[in-house]
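How a chain folds remains the central question behind the approach discussed here. In the encoding step, the backbone of a single protein was reduced to a row of integers, each denoting a local shape. We regard such an encoding as a compact summary of how the chain folds. The sequence in question and its structure tokens are set out directly beneath this paragraph:

___
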Amino acid sequence: MRVVVFIFLFSFLFGANVTSTKKEIIQTKYYISKMNQKLDKLATEINKKEKYLKNLNKQIINLNRQINILKNQLKDSNKKLSELTDLKKGYETKAQKIQNEITDFISENYFVNSIKSENVNDLINKEISQKILEKYSKKINTLTSQNKKILQQIKSVNDTIDLILQKQKELKNKKQKLSQLLKKQKKELSLLNSQKLKYKSKLQNLIKKQKALQNRLVKLNIIKQRKTNVTQIGNAYFKPKIANYKGSKTIAPIQGRIIKKFGSYIDPIYKIKVYNDSITIKPYRQNSVVRSILSGKVVYIGENNDKKIIVIKHKNNLFSIYANLDKISPLLKKGSYVKRGQIIARVKDALEFEVTYKEKPINPVKVILLK
């Protein structure tokens, strides 16, 4: 979302007996334009920060949910670990007893004294005697089967213990991550609040500047007093009467996309209703040429802080205004006659374009054909 604030008519630039105030008015217009850009940038940062915090909050909620699940799964886990450890020891004692029984059985029956130093698998795999295996295989197999079952039970207990320990470690890590996210959330919220306060201050200063400019233009009989409505935070909203354009569409001053539209807007941060008399066009290519939309006479060329303005008067009191220009054609002078489509300037970033008829704004998209 972009911040849109008042862009006042340029028609004052060619009004009667206002030469002494032109410089001041142009400077104010430039100030308004620059503040527009700063507010746009700041609003973008605020929106990004809010999206980031929204995503951060989702992570925190999800992490809390995972922690609660793990806590439920690990309820009385320490007690369970103690029980499993005791069970494991019991199984190990039983397994050792069976192994000793196998060893003693073979030793007592066959006087194999060295067998006690061997383990069960060695005894089984060792070819003591085919006769021994045939005669006592049932007894040995029974003891071996019991030993195998006990070893499986020990493995199962070990797996359960490992799973509990793993979940305990996971819970600890998630708690640490949650703590980090909460600290980050607190920091980002503080930064967001600071940005919003800064934004509000700049927006209020800008509106005061615009109101002062409007009052000056009204006193000079350049524009008529606009209807004022009180907004949510106590600022003013000025909406002029719109001229009705019935002519056919002409060429666009530059090819690009509209990044700031004509008409009423709601400020994205503080929801203040604001109005824009012009459109802002972002060119498809940087340093693009700007063309006159119709044939006419150049009635004003101005400059302030390296940004330039051109005003061209066409038939039937129709005026086209080109602002935020970077270069003006060296052949162009005040009083010059230009043809439709003639190159009059270049713009790097964005063109502010306005059309007026008898001191009333016209929606530029009803006048030009923008591809």
Notes: The CA atoms of residues 56 and 331 lie 56 Å apart.
